[in-house]
Amino acid sequence: MKQMPLYEQIYREILKQIEDGTYRIGDRLPSEKELSDHYHVSRITSKKAVELLADAGLVVRMPGKGTFVSETAGISEGLAEREEESPEKQMPIIGVILDGFGPDFGCRLLGSIEAECQRQGLAMLLRCSYGKVEEETKAIGQMRRLGAEGLLIMCVHDENYNASILKMVVEHFPVVTLDRQMKGIPVSFVGTDNEEASKKLASYLIEKGCEKICFVKPYAAETPTIQERMAGFRAAHSEHGIVADESLWITDLKATLPMYYGERQLESDMEKVMEFIGKHPEIEAYFAVEYSLARIIYSCLKRLNLHKKCPVVCFDGTDNIMKEVMFTHVKQDEEQIGKIGVQMLADAIRGKVSPCTVQVPYRIVEAAPFENQDDERDQR
Q: Are 322 and 342 in contact (CB under 8 A)?
């Protein structure tokens, strides 16, 4: 059996000392030099052990002052006390980290994950990253410290992959990514074939006679998901012998990104969109990479009294009680994504599978004609 690295042995011993009360919240830990002298290891080794503690949210490092046990370290103490009393203490725990969730995408996914966890006999911890890499990193550390045996993660949109996720992959810690694939990384993924779905949705517009189509995406790094949807959009144009004119694209909207949420940003984006629409009367339709962007575009078109002239399509949509559809959209099977994701993670925890990719079927849901939907839309 492979011997545990020295830095991890030190990390585990300090963790145990935090849990048994040797070190309490606010206590200062020995310095890296003191640790290296005590354990007879190099400074590099002691530094790596402290970095693991910091990544897990157990300690706070204050330059010039030292390393102190953080307030979040108290969570593990409370958990340990509850486990002594709980008959379910042997139930395996998994962590679920979502970017966020709402009625357009995420709520059904989360419900499916929770239901499958019950069927699999798994306890579930939930955190949201709200589009912030630092929150995602903090959640990973806390969940691992709380005993999660595997993680389901909807990765944050960012130009670079989160180092904490890459570290888990290297360590062969069970991870399954949902909806957003980490291209080129040997980590399991379950989600939609975004490129194919995007091509099909763009072809829907083209076959309806629309050739001047505005592609709409958020102001963000071109993540794999967005790249795939862009590629599908271009492929549809190519197959129909049409040039995808990028001068007609809107690529700098911020209001739908968690770090920019707010009425001021929304109004700024809407002013920008209305100005763009005014400059490009030749646009015949709008293709949004997500539902919330489609709502912004539609609202702007309505203010300009163009909402009946220009169709809007998107990925995802909401289901209301009357089953009325606001936009023609790609409907991803959130229930299957969640269910399969939990099953894949459970198998990975049991050592049954290697990293793999599962693409779940989707469908195009067509909106009713504009004249029949207008009154319903006005009420929203």
A: no
CATH number of 194-331+364-378: 3.40.50.2300
Answer yes or no: same fold for 91-192+334-349 and 194-331+364-378: yes
CATH class of 91-192+334-349: alpha beta
Amino acid 82: pLDDT: 46
The reported pLDDT for the residue numbered 259 is 73
Measure the CA angle with vertex 178, ends 191 and 147; round to 5°: 150
Place of tokens 């969730």: 101
State the Cα–Cα distance between residues 293 and 287, nearest whole angstrom. Answer: 9
Name which of 169, 227, 168, 233 is nearest 204 in CA terms: 233
Residues in the chain: 380
Q: Which CATH number fits domain 6-73: 1.10.10.10, 1.10.287.1260, 3.30.930.10, 1.20.1440.20?
A: 1.10.10.10
Low-confidence spans in the chain with pLDDT less than 70:
1-3, 71-90, 159, 221-222, 319-325, 369-380
One-letter amino acid of 90? Q
pLDDT at 5: 82
How buried is 33 (Cβ within 10 angstroms: 0-12 exposed, 13-18 middle, 19+ buried)?
A: exposed
The residues, any chain, with a CB within 8 Å of residue 249's CB and separated by 6 or more, are: 214, 215, 216, 217
Distance CA 238, CA 241 (A): 5
HSE, side-chain direction, 13 A CA sphere, residue 234: 9
What is the rounded CA–CA span in Å between residue 268 and residue 252?
11
pTM score, whole prediction: 0.72
CA distances from 219 to 157, 222, 225, 285 (A): 11, 9, 14, 20
DSSP 97: E
Q: Where are the domains of the chain?
A: 6-73, 91-192+334-349, 194-331+364-378
